[in-house]
């Protein structure tokens, strides 16, 4: 249904630009769309499962931190979650995009899916109370280990444990999340790179963060999409069934 709505919007936009009346506003089209909604439903397709904080910590605990790949993946998982980054945004980060301040890192996101004009925005990556799960400290540890002072932050690692100079691909984020989840007993087919971003929004809502604060971190332009995560995270907050049985 969402795909049909996008097509209708595109058709309407083209007609409007041409100074013509859009056929999408005719009674015939409206009637057909209403019929499709009733018959097929409007529920969105199932997305990747949001990660809980407890699951993320288990995934981090299961990594081998004596190896370069373990250090990299720990930083990638924690930074991806705390920054609510899309996978393309995460692997697109360079060392020059980081500014260390007293509270943590200020991350300059140069461009994203929702920012096609490359206006850019800044994201705060705060220090966490527990060093093992702190996105700032683990990122600093990775950068120091890999001796990264410029260029891509997250890079491929060869079979000999050598950190390469190339940039990690966006699809690698999904593989890292799947493997880390499988290691602690989660179903890998339900996980992906989006599990970090969705997990942040869901967990932040669960812990009472405001819609405004969550959107500031995620950069969501569509409140409809963001509120889907917030609703899921708030299912058991002030739940009327709590304590009844």
What can be said about this structure in brief?
The chain is mainly alpha-helical. The chain has ten helices and three strands; from the N terminus they run H-H-H-H-H-E-E-E-H-H-H-H-H. It has two domains: 2-40; 53-202, Orthogonal Bundle (hpI Integrase, Chain A).
What does this structure look like?
The protein is mainly alpha-helical. It folds into two domains: 2-40; 53-202, hpI Integrase, Chain A. Helices cover 48% and strands 7% of the residues. The chain has ten helices and three strands. The protein has helices spanning 2-17, 27-40, 53-61, 68-82, 87-91, 135-146, 170-183, 194-206, 211-218, 223-233, and strands spanning 98-101, 104-109, 121-126. Helix 4 packs across helix 8 (194-206). The longest helix has 16 residues, at 2-17. The radius of gyration is 21 Å and the shape is globular. The chain starts with a helix and ends in a 12-residue tail after the last helix.
Which SSEs are present, and which pair or pack?
Layout: H1 2-17, H2 27-40, H3 53-61, H4 68-82, H5 87-91, E1 98-101, E2 104-109, E3 121-126, H6 135-146, H7 170-183, H8 194-206, H9 211-218, H10 223-233
Antiparallel strand pairs: 1-2, 2-3
């Amino acid at each position: 249904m969402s795909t049909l709505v996008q097509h209708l919007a595109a058709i309407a936009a083209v007609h409007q630009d041409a100074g013509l009346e859009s056929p999408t506003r005719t009674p015939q089209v409206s009637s057909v769309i209403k019929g499709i909604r009733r018959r097929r439903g409007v529920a969105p397709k199932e997305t990747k499962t949001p990660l809980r904080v407890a699951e993320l910590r288990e995934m981090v605990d299961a990594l081998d931190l004596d190896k370069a790949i373990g250090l990299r993946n720990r930083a990638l998982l924690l930074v991806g979650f705390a920054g609510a980054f899309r996978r393309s945004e995460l692997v697109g980060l360079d060392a020059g995009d980081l500014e260390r301040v007293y509270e943590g890192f200020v991350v300059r996101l140069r461009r994203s899916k929702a920012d096609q004009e490359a206006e850019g925005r800044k994201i705060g990556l705060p220090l966490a109370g527990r060093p093992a799960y702190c996105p700032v400290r683990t990122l600093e540890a990775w950068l120091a280990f890999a001796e990264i002072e410029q260029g891509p932050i997250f890079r491929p690692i060869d079979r000999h444990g050598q950190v390469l100079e190339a940039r990690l691909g966006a699809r690698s984020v999904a593989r890292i999340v799947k493997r880390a989840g499988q290691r602690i007993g989660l179903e890998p087919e339900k996980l992906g790179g989006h599990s970090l971003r969705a997990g942040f929004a869901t967990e932040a809502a669960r812990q009472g963060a405001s819609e405004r604060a969550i959107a500031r971190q995620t950069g969501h332009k569509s409140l409809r999409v963001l509120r889907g995560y917030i609703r899921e995270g708030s299912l058991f907050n002030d739940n009327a069934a709590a304590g009844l049985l």
